[in-house]
Amino acid sequence: MAGWEERRAWLRCMEKAAWGDTPLEVAKNETAAYFSNGKTVEFQLEQEMQDSFEISGGDQGWRVRGGETGVLYGAYALIRACEAGETVPAGVQAPSYALRMINCWDNMDGSVERGYAGRSIWFEGNRFEYEPARIRQLGRLLASVGINVLCVNNVNVHQPAQHLLDGLLPDTARFAALLRPFGVRLMLSIDFSQPMQQGLSTADPLDAGVQAWWAETAKRVWTAIPDLAGFLVKADSEHRPGPNTYGRTHAEGANMLARAIAPYGGRLVWRAFVYNCMQDWRDKTIDRPRAAYDLYMPLDGAFDGNVILQVKHGPYDFQVREPLSPLLLGMEKTPLAVEFQLAQEYTGHQIDLYYMASLWRETFSQMGKGSVTAVAAVSNLGRDDCWTGHPFAMANLFAYGLFAWDPDSDPEKALRQWVKLTYALPAGQEDSLTAMLMDSRAVYERYTATLGLCWMVQPNIHYGPSPYGYEFQAWGTYNRADRNAVGIDRTKNGTGYAEQYPEPLRSLYADPQTCPDNLLLFFHRLPYDFVMKDGRTLIQRIYDDHFQGCQEAEAMGEALSALSLPSPDREEAAERMQAQIRNAREWRDVTNTFFHRFSGAEDRHGRTIYD
Ligand code: GCU
Prior knowledge:
By secondary structure, the chain is α/β, with parallel strands linked by helices.
């Protein structure tokens, strides 16, 4: 099997380039290597342009004008367009979001939480351990699509990750230095109770000793890494420590940290993934999707200017289909980051195909140009030779970069560019691979969690069907299916969650006649004979979707085998496709049987439902 050096995904076309010590040097080396056939590329540095760039010229040569990182993004945009045979972007190109982050859930023992691409690329044995060349290649991978922040350690900060701020700080700084020429700044996840691990008796944010401890820590860390982007914090969430322990609000907790890092230009990214994970399933008054809005809306305006509240795109947790988090529409005075998950935790573990860009398109177009100022995504990278487990999962990282730069990007155009840069396929095959990946999200949704049904997955691992897997658990994740009905009423007659939306969404979701089919059971509790907009009953639609999704997965298998992909991508993709088809059949039969046993309704087409 080829090593990672040979598996450079879309960067194959640049593989001859030398590294550089600054973004400008990298830009020069990359373009010199790419345009080795005589065309020249001139660079004009204009500091105040920062990440922005403008490309001009053509026949004789190109000119790239831009800020310190802008020239690098310009160089990559130029190479991408030329390699894909596309028109070079005209006019000044500026990113919509200043922070375009990936959050890596890498633990220092080398494992990766929700990692589906092997072990950590940079941690092993509770310390940094990596090949510098691979880290530079990673920097290039990220920079080539405009990603500029990498949070290096898991949001669940296990020991000894706290030592990234002290004993291991010189190593953290060396790692940051490798990414710096690519304009990628490091971020660190921190533990709210960290002062207590190091001698203090409290982590209370209003305690002067705690404040001094963080100020001292920030000074030390920023002295070692002056361009550190900031700290990322998961507090009072899934058993992580936080300000609530001391009766303090999240604004008090976040602001205390924000003030410690403000002198250095640091940003405090505070995650809004906070809910009661010790819920009594019998208690129907608690509805998990309400949690973040209920907690944070009253705090709008209370956060310091360098705090960014990072909100998952949906109110649950990266399920196959969720509505947009109402917090992203509600908070107006707080800088927000929207968080996506490239790691396919609930979307097929980088075994099943799942191209995500249509989700981002939907999210960004619903969000409008509100107070969202940054974008984050949980990384799908690991030490596997192909970086992402499934070679096609790389398309998600690639497209994420393009969407974080320009949320109006087109999912299919982004995908096509990736396909062209990654594989030199004949035109028909390029169309076929593009179509397969474009359909993959809808297909996965049909054979797994149709109509907005969430959480019917195997508990903990989150792959494979288990319709009642989370039903009697403390996580607040229920479908409440019984013989009469399925789903949760989240209108004002039920949990009231739909009331968190502004109009017109509130009314749209509140009425089953107008609620989009793909969210119907997210917002409503309905009987199996409920008649859908297209005239089918709810139960028939559940059966149909699962049969159809499974058939489509099988057809994808056939389309895949007709592609002349290079080895080992061909073999890896084929092997994973077999697993995907097995998974799809399992989902179809388990889900259909589950609902058949409850409803007693026969399939109108007489297909096999096991009983
Ligand atoms: C999910 C995931 C966890 C993760 C958490 C988070 O619940 O299963 O592994 O820690 O999200 O986003 O913090």
